[in-house]
Write a structure and sequence with these properties.
The chain has 189 residues and is an alpha/beta fold. The chain is built from 6 helices and 8 strands. The relative contact order is 0.15. This is 16S rRNA (Guanine(966)-N(2))-methyltransferase RsmD.
Length: 189
């Protein structure tokens, strides 16, 4: 695995040892970032179920100012910290060893995020509920995007509160990604 683009382009990052996580492949990561915007001018990223931290590290490399990484597995937290040290991004990051529900409750009172990545183990997906919580607690900036990676058999709703699906991407018979953003911006324009 590597950083695909930006200021840390080409730097290698480690996967979490064992089979408890499923890292997003470089090919999927590159395609995803081509869709959501190849580069960013600031903003914060939130990498939930972070695993190796690859998505949040990619966002930092491409211009996000700060990233928060959340995972509850000890091996994942160790790997994220190693990858942040390797890519020299530790000073722009926070790593939380917490359950995602607990972390969302704690982060709800902070400044909203521009990018929120949700990549749970497919067997434990509660994506619609987590997206609803993020929307209800105004955790996403007006121009932000929520990126949900999920099993291809999972069908997420077109609308969750004020959030609407802007794109559905299918990468294989196993992996799909659904992207949400606020729809009220167009209505109020």
């Amino acid at each position: 695995m590597r950083v695909i683009s930006g200021e840390r382009k080409g730097m290698r990052i480690k996967a979490v040892p064992g089979d408890q996580t499923r890292p997003t492949t470089d090919k999927v990561k590159e395609s995803l970032f081509n869709v959501i915007g190849p580069y960013f001018n600031g903003g914060k990223a939130l990498d939930l179920f972070a695993g190796s931290g690859g998505l949040g590290i990619e966002a930092l490399s491409r211009g996000c100012e700060e990233a928060v990484f959340v995972d509850q597995q000890f091996k994942a937290i160790q790997t994220i910290k190693e990858n942040l040290a390797t890519t020299r991004l530790t000073d722009r990051s926070r790593v939380l060893k917490k359950d995602v529900t607990v972390a969302l409750a704690e982060l709800a009172s902070e400044e909203p995020f521009k990018l929120i990545f949700l990549d749970p183990p497919y067997a434990k997906e509660q994506l619609a509920d987590q997206v609803a919580y993020i929307e209800q607690h105004d955790m996403l900036t007006d121009n932000g995007v929520i990126i949900c990676e999920h099993g291809s058999e999972t069908e997420l709703p077109d609308q969750i509160g004020r959030l609407s699906v802007i794109k559905r991407l299918r990468y294989s018979t196993v992996i799909s990604i659904t992207l949400y953003e606020f729809t009220e911006l167009e209505e109020n324009a």
